[in-house]
Design a protein that fits this description.
Elements (H helix, E strand, L loop, with lengths): L7 H5 L2 H5 L4 E2 L10 H14 L9 H21 L6 E4 L2 H16 L5 E5 L8 H10 L2 E5 L9 H6 L5 E7 L12 H9 L3 E5 L11 H4 L3 E5 L10 E5 L1 H6 L10 E4 L4 E3 L13 H17 L1 H20 L4 E3 L12 E6 L4 H10 L2 E2 L1 E3 L4 H6 L5 E5 L6 H17 L3
Parallel strand pairs: 1-13, 3-4, 3-5, 5-6, 6-7
Antiparallel strand pairs: 2-8, 7-8, 9-10, 11-12, 12-15, 14-15
Helix pairs in contact: 3-11, 4-11, 5-6, 12-15, 13-15
Bound molecules: pyridoxal-5'-phosphate.
The site of pyridoxal-5'-phosphate has 13 residues, from helix 5.
Length: 408
């Protein structure tokens, strides 16, 4: 087993990291690097089985279709859902927009409410803001506690018979703390509301079970979980998908087309208009195989140890402010946002870049949240299985070097 001190064997499985031994890639919450197995699966598909899917009767097309549908089955097993409940999209953002348009468009009326939290990424904020403007509904925003975690008591109290949709992140991409979902989902259902969970961050850190979670919709992106960019997943209860109108219309999502109307295809294909991301679905399957071959327990132990260490080292640095809870607690994901007195986050990221350390700087597509916490920008380091204590040390040294340059 790799300890956080020695992940050389894991690192070797990632061609980009193997080719850049000096690189400390600490921007995994934005996107992860890709293991060989994912790249090989996509390459093999293009070299041996590529054709468009669901369109033709020749062998190659049938082989491509079988592999594409096999990937759907793999995603379904990964989430404990049924294959017909899995819709492939371009990314998590598109999946949320699909739900806002197709489910929200049908269900939300003037005077209704959609409840989100202040912690949301723009991807789980703007589609609801737009839906509410279109429908003359009210966007209700559940607040955070002073430490940035969801104020669960207030959030629960905001669910009412007017609430039609509750849209929540499972894990903040800013503070790395899991959102308490169980009571919110239960309360929403008691009031007849439907729940969509943004799993873009959570999916890379813990096993998701759609059935146990009892959410109505769950979304994630392949690229944050070692898969390729260009594929996302909407998992939804079959009975909801059945009643929803398609989001995008065109080829393959339809059974029969007349001059003045059309009969939609069955689920999930009703929601997959046009040529889908075929190789990307196959790459995603390999990514899910990869994460399960690491094992959730090993991933979890590695990430928790590294996060605790990074928090401890950051707390010891003068002038560094951790956004969110400052101390480690079990379940905290390896995502740490912070600011450094007197050093703009972009300057810090540039100085770290000179040391071959890649971190994120800016508002992390969560402007309302950062503003609520009185920040306009911050820096963020995020870790995964291939990161090491040595990289955390390099980050800390880099921050100290930036403080010296700016004489703070
Ligand atoms: C919490 C959260 N939701 C949604 C997204 C959007 O993901 P994508 O850009 O892959 O659609 C992100 C991306 O950073 C995220 O962190």
């Amino acid at each position: 087993m790799n300890s956080p001190n020695n992940t050389n064997t894991t690192r070797a499985e990632f061609p980009l990291l193997a080719a850049n031994p000096a690189l400390a890639y600490l921007d995994n919450a934005a996107s992860t690097q890709k293991p060989k197995t994912v790249l090989k699966a996509m390459d093999a598909f293009y070299c041996t089985s590529y054709a468009n899917v669901h369109r033709s009767v020749y062998d190659l097309s049938e082989r491509a279709t079988a592999q594409y549908e096999d990937a759907r089955g793999r995603v379904a097993r990964f989430l404990n859902a049924q294959p017909q409940e899995i819709v492939f999209t371009k990314n998590a953002t598109e999946a949320i927009n699909l739900v806002a348009y197709s489910f929200g468009g049908g269900e939300v009326r003037e005077g209704d409410e959609v409840l989100v939290s202040i912690l949301e990424h723009h991807a789980n904020f703007l589609p609801w803001q737009r839906l509410c403007a279109r429908k003359k509904a009210r966007l209700v925003v559940a607040p955070a506690n002073a430490d940035g975690t969801l104020d669960e008591t207030s959030a629960l109290a905001l669910v009412s018979p007017r609430t039609k949709i509750v849209a929540l992140t499972a894990l903040s991409n800013v503070i790395g703390v899991p959102t308490p979902l169980a009571r919110m989902i239960e309360r929403a259902h008691q009031h007849g509301a439907r729940v969509i969970i943004d799993g873009a961050q959570a999916v890379a850190h813990k096993r998701i079970d759609m059935r146990a979670m009892d959410a109505d919709f769950f979304v994630f992106s392949g690229h944050k979980i070692f898969g390729p960019a260009g594929i996302g997943v909407l998992a939804a209860r079959a009975e909801l998908l059945e009643t929803m109108q398609p989001f995008i219309v065109g080829g393959e999502m339809v059974k029969t087309v007349f001059l003045d109307n059309a009969e939609w295809n069955d689920i999930p294909w009703k929601f997959e208009a046009g040529t889908p991301p075929i190789a990307e679905a196959i790459g995603l399957k390999a990514a899910l195989d990869f994460i399960e071959s690491i094992g959730w327990q090993r991933l979890h132990t590695h990430e928790q140890t590294l996060t605790e260490y990074a928090l401890e080292r950051m707390r010891a640095l003068k002038g560094v402010h951790i956004i969110g809870p400052k101390t480690f607690s079990s379940g905290r994901a390896p995502i740490i946002s912070f600011t450094v007195n007197g050093v703009h986050p972009h300057d810090l990221a540039s100085i770290l870049n000179e040391r071959h350390i890649a971190i994120r700087s800016g508002h992390f597509c969560a402007q309302p949240f950062l503003n609520a916490l009185s920040y306009s920008a911050a820096a963020r380091a995020s870790f995964t299985i291939y990161n090491t204590r040595a990289e955390v040390d390099a980050l800390i040294e880099g921050i100290a070097a930036a403080q010296k340059i700016f004489r703070v």
